[in-house]
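Reply to thread "Modeling small-molecule complexes from scratch"

Following up on the discussion above, here's a worked example others can learn from. I took a protein sequence and the SMILES for pyridoxal-5'-phosphate and predicted the complex. Inputs first:
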Amino acid sequence: MIDFNRPAFVGKELDYIKDAVQRGMLCGDGEYTKKCSAWMQERFCVNHVMLTTSCTHALEMAAYLADIRPGDEVIMPSYTFVSTADAFVLRGAKIVFVDIRPDTMNMDEKLIEQAVTPKTRAIVPVHYAGVACEMDTIMDIADKYGLKVIEDAAQGVDAFYKGRALGTIGDFGCYSFHETKNYTMGEGGALLFQEEKYLDRAEVLREKGTDRSKFFRGQVDKYRWVDYGSSYLPSELNAAYLFAQLEACEEISGKRMEIYNYYHRNLAGLAREGRIEQPFVPGACTHNAHMYYIKVRDVGVRGRLIQYLRERGICSVFHYVPLHTAPAGQKFGRFAGEDVYTTRESERLLRLPMFYNLDMEDVKQIVDVINKFDGF
Ligand SMILES: *Cc1c(COP(=O)(O)O)cnc(C)c1O
């Protein structure tokens, strides 16, 4: 069976975990956490990076730091993972869903402005498949109406928009290091921001509402409960695994790109014949080969293709059930305008196996099998 995903394992992970154990500090914010943050600050040109226990938690932190309150409205696509919305629902916000563009599957930037109301406080672009949303337009709308921008860059680590790293363009950026993402620590994520003014509250929020971070830096002589907080810092064991992955970033992304390009070249014939559609990457975007998907005619064809692939030992998957059609989406959100593409495109999309340790022989086999499918 060719799996859909296996977590990357590149080499030094176990050495670093062993080193973390020998250092005698397993809780958060030790040596490896600092190394990961520093590495990302430098590579992505961002002032503050805080490792978190997940992207979901980074989004929760961002929603809190952006001061989202009950009754506020937050604009985002419906075609996304539940956490994008949940983090804001937790603060009592109403979710306003906007349709996607069929070419990138990202929120359609041209539909955002008409979804803005006097209650709107934030826009949450999701960079689907590591392909950037149209950030210039989004930042202009945010400036015009005084809105915060929180980038769900869970899939966008080491991807760029006009040379700027995803997650560093808005007020906050949120990364995921879940094992299904390009770089992993099992479960984990990061919160990114440029502005100094968020730093104190972010540290307190992440450290159970205490000024423990200041205490460790010797800036206060005892640590106390100073504000609302939770526990968002991952252990050193996870950070050690991640640091090995970040160091091997070129190797991991090189391999993913090789797989992506092989799929793209060798399925182009089917696209030319109009049987499938392939991903589109706008000129302003440098993607990170987070996923490879194809789109088929409709949900029926997709179901038959998944079955056909499974019978030949290939695991393929789809996502997402649009949030506005789900029970919680109906309770906490509304769709602004018409759902022209969200449901239709989500039902046609199929993701193919993509992971660092995937054998190129397997990729070749997947392509051959798909090219022989006669049900398109
Ligand atoms: C994976 C993912 C998340 C959640 O990431 P976790 O680290 O598992 O919390 C959120 N948003 C998007 C778009 C994702 O792909």
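What I'd highlight from this example: The two ends are 23 Å apart (CA to CA). The longest strand covers residues 48-52. Questions welcome below.
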